[in-house]
Specification:
The chain has one domain (7-212): 3-Layer(aba) Sandwich (L-fuculose-1-phosphate Aldolase). It is 38% helix and 14% strand. It contains 6 helices and 7 strands. It has helices spanning 7-23, 79-88, 101-109, 139-148, 169-191, 200-212, and strands spanning 33-38, 41-44, 60-62, 94-98, 130-131, 154-157, 161-166. β5 (130-131), α4 and β6 (154-157) form a beta-alpha-beta unit. α2 (79-88) runs parallel beside α4. It is globular and about 55 Å long. The chain starts with 6 loop residues before the first helix and ends in a 5-residue tail after the last helix.
Length: 217
Amino acid sequence: MPRIENEETRRAQIVSAMRRMEARGLNRGTTGNVSVRHEKGMLITPSGITAEHLTADQIVFLDERQARAADALAPSSEWQMHAALLAARPDVNAVVHCHSRFATILACAGKPIPPLHYMVGVAGRPDIPLAPYATFGSAALAANIAATLQTGFACLMANHGQIVAAPGLSRALMIAEEVEEQAAVYWGTLAIGGPNILSDADMADNFRQFSQYGQKR
Ligand SMILES: [Zn+2]
């Protein structure tokens, strides 16, 4: 039976996701933002509040016209890329964005993550692509990300960071952590001559293994 989550639960989950990102070193200060599909719109973190000070009632609901209640806080300045992904991908319900260090190093060097380890496949495809640069918070950036993430669950964002869109929030967080780990591994291999890349056949085998591995939710 799928769990039915109410708005209060989702708000609390977003707060704990922000705290977990901070605790794992994926996020610092007021950077990073999280959204979850809710009714025809989304619940999203507010602009300019640190994970430490964030409370569930500060999470902003934006309806399908991107309108919010009169007493709601301003949403994350990066709300447009969350809205674009939720609109373009009916298979995803949660979006996580952060400036985690190694993902950001690669994004600033213009280097997507190649298939160098089977865990790259956790992001849903053999590689982790790089979305082209556009100004933070812009509609152009939202369009670049939606175009890059037509398949798979994660991409790097040129000169900015990483973004994950997944069926659920806990999975999105897990993928963001793994993107950061794979970014660190790739960065390390680049320092000692570059990675040995897995073949398409190897990655296809890995996806077959993933389909049989672990819990399905
Ligand atoms: Zn950002």
